[in-house]
Specification:
This protein is α/β, with parallel strands linked by helices and 277 residues long. It is built from nine helices and ten strands. The strands form three sheets. It has a six-stranded parallel sheet with strand order 2-1-7-8-9-10, sandwiched between helices. It has a two-stranded antiparallel ribbon with strand order 3-4. Strands 5-6 form a two-stranded antiparallel sheet. Strand 9, helix 8 and strand 10 form a beta-alpha-beta unit. The longest helix has 38 residues.
Amino acid sequence: SRVTETLSHKRARRTKREDSKDEEERMKKQHASSSSQSSQKVCLCFHGFSQNGLAFRQRTGSIRTKTLKREYEFVFLDAPHRVDGVFDVDDVNDEKNIEKRENEETMRSWWLAGENVSSGATKAKDGSWIRPAKSTKIVRLEETVALIENALKEQEGRVRALVGFSQGATLIGILKRVKPELFENVRRVVSVAGFDPLDARFYEKDGVIDVPSMHVHGKNDALVTRDRSDRLRDKFYNKEKSVVFEHEGGHGVPTSREFREAFEKFLLIPDGEGKDE
């Protein structure tokens, strides 16, 4: 009947209006979320040798507090060079083989040791293989620089802090010498278990990271000695703007409440305060 048809049209119009309203609300929320994210500062994070971005994200979960996440978006990059299977799964090494690799297929490196490239050694058990930390010929850094340049472009000037672990921490110092313009907006650096590069080329140029820095070292670190950590700080950073956090652990990111609070406090210090100026 005509009445039934009219009621049906009314319901259809009402449903359409409601759907339109729901879509409008959804778009508003999405825009608000997008605006909030675009106004957040970014902290770029660099994993250690034979790790990857996901592994580093998991290992820093407890120190990335809710307070920090309101201030920063933490972006974890993957190094460009794959070093799958470099360590045997049962090879108990560097902090119990760094918690035994969750996924061997994603082992990565920010650079390669020229000595290994020349000898053809690809696994730790190969007689001539050496760790990147002990290499005097750092090679294949070009891919890493390009990757980081692209990451910075994508973030459109929002990168305000850098956090690196082991090889990733050393990489931050090297980047200052090879591409100083990458640090234009950086205001904070946290270097965990970083070491001085042994390739003499990176000492031919001047240039220190002239922003507040935190240098984290484990007293029981069997891979990176305190003197190598100190040399990285002294040669690549403004020592006057640096603080040192020493902990009782080994080669890893500390998870103690003391470090969590120190890490949060350091990243949240307003520009121009603390050891800024």
